[in-house]
Amino acid sequence: xxxxxxxxxxxxxxxxxxxxxxxxxxxxxxxxxxxxxxxxxxxxxxxxxxxxxxxxxxxxxxxxxxxxxxxxxxxxxxxxxxxxxxxxxxxxxxxxxxxxxxxxxxxxxxxxxxxxxxxxxxxxxxxxxxxxxxxxxxxxxxxxxxxxxxxxxxxxxxxxxxxxxxxxxxxxxxxxxxxxxxxxxxxxxxxxxxxxxxxxxxxxxxxxxxxxxxxxxxxxxxxxxxxxxxxxxxxxxxxxxxxxxxxxxxxxxxxxxxxxxxxxxxxxxxxxxxxx
Amino acid sequence: xxxxxxxxxxxxxxxxxxxxxxxxxxxxxxxxxxxxxxxxxxxxxxxxxxxxxxxxxxxxxxxxxxxxxxxxxxxxxxxxxxxxxxxxxxxxxxxxxxxxxxxxxxxxxxxxxxxxxxxxxxxxxxxxxxxxxxxxxxxxxxxxxxxxxxxxxxxxxxxxxxxxxxxxxxxxxxxxxxxxxxxxxxxxxxxxxxxxxxxxxxxxxxxxxxxxxxxxxxxxxxxxxxxxxxxxxxxxxxxxxxxxxxxxxxxxxxxxxxxxxxxxxxxxxxxxxxxxxxxxxxxxxxxxxxxxxxxxxxxxxx
Lengths: 276, 302
Hints:
Strand content of chain B: under 5%
Number of domains of chain A: 2
CATH architecture of the largest domain in chain A: Orthogonal Bundle
Shape of chain B: globular
Radius of gyration of chain B: 24 Å
Largest sheet of chain A: none
Mean pLDDT of chain B: 87
Helix content of chain A: 55-70%
Helix content of chain B: 55-70%
Order of helices and strands of chain A: HHHHHHHHHHHHHH
Number of strands of chain A: 0
Structural class of chain A: mainly alpha
Strand order of the largest sheet of chain B: 1-2
Number of domains of chain B: 2
Number of strands of chain B: 2
CATH topology of the largest domain in chain A: MetI-like fold
Distance between the termini of chain B: 15 Å
Strand content of chain A: under 5%
Low-confidence stretches of chain A: none
Shape of chain A: globular
CATH superfamily of the largest domain in chain A: MetI-like
Order of helices and strands of chain B: HEEHHHHHHHHHHHH
CATH superfamily of the largest domain in chain B: MetI-like
Low-confidence stretches of chain B: 1-12
Oligomer: heterodimer
Largest sheet of chain B: 2 strands, antiparallel
């Protein structure tokens, strides 16, 4: 028992140490810029709301509107998550519930896209997107990223494990393929779809390199890719504005963090299911 | 992956007939793959063998010249070695750390949920945002960590000191990866029979031996999976982290393969070199992917 308490204390100490980067950001975000020179205050100050208002209103001098960047990130993350789920669901349904020539080839082609993530083919993909005149648009932030081998694979497993009697019953009622899809398959896939949505939302929100390459127009900048510019803008003053830079960083990390924490319980359960 | 009850296919007769409907359903995803996956890959394959003139008006076939140039250059060799060392070191540290943390937390008799959250949350952060937090923490004159290092007599200046910049990138990467490894080891431990978890609850030499002899071997599949995913993450997904922390500097000291490709493509506008480096990265990631598939296949009992 005593040892359990010892272990708990050790773990707590370690957790606090690992949380230090976040805590320092919170300290900076809740003080005036002058308070951050020299030694960092130990406790949060009372300027968090003030700093939030400044960042979301006027923004950092010399950089695009933070509110707009947050909005762009939301559009990109939602677009990617919904796009991936839609495309993957349709593909998985076609592969499981139809028999047609080249069915297997189509599935293998989709899976093979998993082998080469965008991070290694960003250069030629950028060239193709530029050639198609797609740069600086919401389309280029979303469409090249919405093919999903992982989601297609997992949804195919799910559809294939649904009892065949479901389909027999639906057919007896005279349901066609699209009725069965909309009224049976899709509602039953709610749970895996929700789990995948969390994963893909975080994936989309956290993109850095792709938006950096494809959006030179500040109107399409996302908050994660804009972080580098925000740090440069914030530290270009005689009095560095770490208060505003860290407030923005907190705003940028909050949405995916909230999504993960809210979904944590069944997210882990989903992982244990996959592991089995 | 793959559940035990998934036979993979419904029984014969339980599917729809249709000639064009399945293709219509597949069309959106196949179209995206054709335009943004197949076409770019083929384009990189072709560009690697061609050299355009300065105005982009004409091209000539140059055979393996770009390959010879890239593979023979000292900078590429430097980036390759640096990337491998970086990937191996960060993967090893975060694997060991993630395993130890998961065993310690899952062996607690109460309060597991709280500690899971306390160690999991960095997982959700974008690498670039993690880097922004660490930039502030280790900014000379301002940062808490920088102040601490100065206090113990280190002349901290990662903008000029190569070793310090590398240490900063290493620490930030391990910090981020630790949460990921903790998550997967924790999930694997939770799926073990509860009686086995008791080994993890024991302290002292006896508990340690049982963890080493019983739990670690049982989690070998998870370790294999994590080795490949960790390496892939460090090799290919750390661009934002490095861009925010050090921009590859000072003097290329933190320039990984992906970062060098970015520099050659978008700063030096060297299309041939960029195409060759893209191909080499694709080969590397395909190799890791094949390795992962093989390891997973071996896990399925014959």
